[in-house]
Design goal:
The chain has 412 residues and is α/β, with parallel strands linked by helices. It is 37% helix and 16% strand. The protein is built from eleven helices and 15 strands. The strands form three sheets. The chain has an eight-stranded mixed β-sheet, sandwiched between helices. Strands 10-9-13-14-15 form a five-stranded parallel β-sheet, covered by helices on one side. α4 runs parallel beside α5 and α7 runs parallel beside α10. The mean pLDDT is 94.
């Protein structure tokens, strides 16, 4: 028997499982991908050093399996599967419905089931409570169902799992209490809301807030360049205000499993009731267009040197969606590379954390040693990037706004 089963061992599920294990619980990790399970067993996974140490020290109380039926042997089940969007920006609910369906099928009386994957409002009731009820299990009496949005920031060791407050909303008050008792084993602060729906909406607000502000600061970056101002200096100055302002930073776009995806779950749901949210829609459109803006700026920079994109050698420096991770999901670099290739450029990339990639257009590339190019585009400012080879004549388009000391740097 296990104290908790964690379904999905990705960037959220694996650190979650390790946090429960570190708290002294017997943990079963469930993932349908044999390759992922082998990576977990051998330690070849992208984790913070602290979590990597936890994985190395994990003993008999931590087991992994590809069998969803294993969740029946756990007192609690936590679902941490990805919730991406399709290329048409429609929620892809395949992994979520599969995981929830399996959890409901194998549930037993007394279990607590907590969904943490970001989704639309009402998904906890629709995908967990209803099928459990159809099986004859009374939610709030026989089984306990809740939503508690994940709050893991991959690659960032400043916010330990135990230190980040968790929001919890149950299908019933008893469900919320059971879920809070479970999460309290590895989280220091809990905030209980009135319903699972309120907790679901909380997560959508968190990430939509970030999306809108990222779109806003990207516009300020464009405006600052036009007005010959350093946008990072402006942001740093604004951040001195101790109230009413939170700094966001411009870049080549937004990637990962949150910003480019989560607000579309809200937009998709509201479209059914014909409720238009123009601010959110405009922000998501602006974020989607940002990689194209990078390529257009590259074209302008090369044109100023008497060159075109066609036939030029372009090196993309860093391709992961954020610093210090190997994650390529929704990375703007993939679209940037495709657009550069379509324009006739000869494109290579260097990323010490990403040895190879496949773009959305199907182009396969391997990381190369950095060297001179007609244009270098700084995309991901990993701390491990070696910039010593950037000589004073190298033209650099800084889409990160983090390389001010490079001699021939131009801002995005």
């Amino acid at each position: 028997m296990y104290d908790v089963a964690v379904v999905g061992l990705g960037y959220v599920g694996l650190p979650t499982a390790l946090a429960f294990h570190a708290a002294g619980l017997r943990v079963l990790g469930v993932d349908l991908d044999p390759g992922r399970l082998e990576a977990v067993r051998t330690g070849r996974v992208d984790l913070l050093d602290s979590d990597r140490e936890r994985l190395r020290e994990a003993g008999e109380r931590f087991t992994v399996t590809a069998e969803p039926a294993g969740t029946a042997r756990a007192d609690a089940v936590i679902i941490c599967v990805p919730t991406p969007v399709s290329r048409h920006l429609v929620p892809d609910l395949g992994a979520l419905t599969g995981a929830c369906g399996a959890a409901a099928e194998h549930a037993r009386p007394g279990q607590t089931i907590v969904l943490t994957s970001t989704s639309y409002v009402g998904s906890t009731k629709e995908l967990l409570a209803r099928p459990l009820t159809a099986r004859g299990l009374r939610v709030g009496t026989d089984v306990f169902v809740a939503f508690s949005p994940e709050r893991i920031d991959p690659g960032n060791d400043r916010h330990a799992h135990e230190d980040v407050p968790r929001v919890v909303g149950g299908v019933t008050p008893r469900c919320a209490a059971r879920a809070a008792a479970l999460l309290g084993r590895c989280t220091g602060e809990l905030h209980t809301v009135s319903s699972a729906e309120a907790a679901e909406m909380t997560k959508l607000l968190e990430n939509t807030f970030r999306a809108v502000n990222i779109a806003l600061v990207n516009e300020f970056a464009d405006a600052s360049r036009l007005l010959e101002l350093d946008v990072m200096e402006v942001i740093e100055a604004a951040a001195t205000k101790p109230y009413g302002y939170l700094p966001f930073f411009p870049g080549p776009g937004a990637g990962g499993h949150c910003i480019p995806c989560d607000p579309h779950y809200l937009l998709w749901q509201l479209k059914r009731d014909r409720l238009h949210t123009p601010l959110v829609s405009a922000a998501m459109d602006a974020i989607a267009m940002r990689p194209g803006r990078v390529v257009e700026r590259a074209r302008q920079v090369l044109s100023d040197q008497g060159r075109g994109l066609a036939g030029s050698d372009v090196l993309v420096l860093g391709v992961a969606y954020k610093p210090e991770v190997e994650d390529l999901r929704e990375s703007p670099a993939l679209e940037i590379i495709d657009r550069l290739l379509a324009a006739g450029a000869r494109v290579a990339y260097h990323d010490p954390l990403v040895p190879e990639l496949v773009t959305g257009g199907g182009t396969k590339l391997a990381s190369v040693d950095p060297g001179p190019a007609d244009l270098v585009i700084a995309h991901t400012p990993h701390q491990s990037l070696d910039l010593g080879w950037l000589h004073e004549d190298q033209l650099l388009l800084d889409a990160t706004y983090r390389f001010p000391g490079v001699a021939r740097r131009v801002a995005l």
